[in-house]
Predict the structure.
Amino acid sequence: MGNDVNIGYLTLSAILFGVGAIGLLVRRNALVMLMCIELMLNAVNLTFVTFGSMLNDITGQVVVFFVLVVAAAEVVVGLGIIVAVARRRPGATADDLRVLRG
Amino acid sequence: MGQYLPVFALLVLAVVFGVLSLLVSKVLAPRLPTRAKEAPYECGIIPGREPPERFPVRFYLVAMIFIVFDIEVIFFFPWAMVFERLGLFGLVAIAIFAAAVFESFVYLISNGALEWGPIKRQQRSALVSPARTAETTIRRVGLEGRPRAAEEAA
Amino acid sequence: MSSLAVVLAQAPQTTVINLAPGAGTPAADPNAPIPTPPVLWAALLPILVLGIGGLVLLTISSLLKKGAPRGFYTLYTVMVAGLSMAAAVPLWAKVNGWTKIAWWDFRDLWWQSLPTEAGPFSTLGQAIGVDGLSVFLILLICIAVILGSLLSDDFLLREGLEGPETYALLLFSACGGVIMAMADDLIVLFLGLETLSIAVYVLAASHLKRAQSQEAGLKYFVLGGFSSAFFLYGIAMLYGATGTTNLVAMKDFLSRSIPANNALLLIGFALLLVGFAFKVAAVPFHAWSPDVYDGAPTPSVAFMASGVKAAGFAGLVRVFVVAFGQYAADWQPIVYALAVLSLVVGSVLAIVQNNVKRTLAYSSVSHVGFILIAVEAATPAGIQAVLFYLASYTFMVVGSFGVVTLVGRVGDGRHSLDDYKGLGRTNPLLAAIFTVFLLAQAGVPFTAGFVAKFYAVIAAVDAGSTVLAVIAMISATIAAFLYLRIIVAMYMTDSDGRSASPVSRAERIRIPFATGLSLLLCVLTTVGVGLLPGPLTELSAKGTPSLVREPARTATDGGLTVGTTGTEAAPGQSQQQG
């Protein structure tokens, strides 16, 4: 695979990661924040796969499995917590969570 | 120095893209937050009415359970590809893994996460009857926990 | 969920190794058996005991129709953690070259399966390392589980939240922590970190009757997930720079060759540090900690502040001080900045809080600053100081939150400073215990806190960071004020000026047995270590030097470890940057 293509993938994953990170900071909906975390993790997956192909090493692709599982576990736990919050206050956004103030 | 160029370009691109998209949205977007914009999906049909407040939580539960077992499969596929060459080692490893996943299934069942039928444990008090009576049109439901109401109903 | 990761943690190496021969070129014989790494089960026993213990606990509770008898879950958790500690003792002996402890001769036991020569070793294709540091932290994390579950027992009963979940989560979380402490591979480290974190997110949100608890869980989850992503991106960068995720192979690679792309390496360091700083709550990544500490159930907070921090620092020390010690000049400035900020911000913001739990959260931030100055030293003495600090801090902080649990009363909501006014009159014993912990945290002589701070500062001075040491001591003085503020509230003021009136029954707080036991242990250790720091110093010193040695290549090295894969990939690395 050409080097430029790989750099392209790396750039794409950096951009996706950035979009996820900024989205997490900007959007206030808990579900969207969850999606942003997923986006960040998957951007890292892309980085791993790209490096794996650049290095001709399988590790980069195997790591993706584990990251996927971790991401799934995070989604489940995150959804669980969001459901618990939403049951108490439907339609709550992160701004409404202000019983605790940082 | 040339070797740093791609990384540098990568960084700059990431930052520029982020900043640019923020700026553009700040400058161009009219700031009129509406309910639709706060919604998880910003496109599609605007809901005509609010969804019912008391959404059965078991839907979420089922979704979560699905994710767990869905993800379990991605480890079975690579193993299935080479299980003969892996021999006993792979079998033991996948057995440990499957046992751990199966345990969560046991826990879920015991907690009633997969009970779909009518809720069996529901108990009806003799005092509470949704049926209409000759005396009043008020249905006598939800009287539990109210000592006065219980007396009145008696 | 976390139970999955427990098992998975063993798998990465097998998968990596199995697939490695097929990378790039087609395998010669498609039906040839794939070589698999030997597994030293004895070395994995502490992890397995905790993970399986959690699973069995859930199974038992699922099969019991009517719920377990009172105290069963606590007893079970304490026993599992104790078993895990017992499984770690032979490892400790092996690392230190002992053949017996007192009268107990190990030599005819199952740990015969461990490598014959004494000293640190690694297993599972170098993914799991057993050395002084990891065994020390296994013991520490198990102690945190024991103390935390003892606190939970009465708390859950009081709040009407009885169930096995808290204990199972504690065990899974501890399992993740132990994996982190033993991980010699960044992916295993990541899995351990996630096992630890995901369980703790749920723990934070587990007080079903308190809105703050769920908010705390959500905040912790969102920020934790955010930091995990950074952490993982850092791993990806290091993988790109060195061609391996294995720390041993990485260290080998870095000592033999200068990576073609240093920038990737540095970005990787920075991102990893961000991830670690989030997990241990160092400024400026501390924003979650006061909210989470405030909202989460207090016994869980005790575990978060002790066990989770210990695991986080285990990873930090192993990755940065040990594996990347060669690059200390690159990461030390960042750790320096984190340490200074944590010390100053932690102690200053702690003073302006009116909620005792938030105060303790900020004070724990400043403690993190202290531990970071020992990390920054990047010397054996520094690592020893880190371990000593972690060990003594565990007891101090669990004790403090134990008292806070009791004073919080039903609903776990009475944590303002006003609720502590007059505690010295209404509950003299509780106030006295709390005073001991607060003084210890302040670093008053003859307590564990003093010795811990002393070692950290000495390590920093020896490493040449005198300015850092001075900042640490100044901030310790500032922080002392906040502890004194609570003590003054307990003894000098009274809630409504009725100092002479008899103490009413409602004001008196009963100390239940399990919580009392936990507090007793903490007080004894805090004071005991303060008076006789020798044993713990020796223990933490034993944890250190073995760590600095590079973990030995497995005796059973099949030539197919990740390390070899990584080094072979090195040429490809330089070529990609052409």
Q: What stands out?
A: Residues 3-96 of chain A form a domain with the Helix Hairpins fold (CATH 1.10.287.3510).
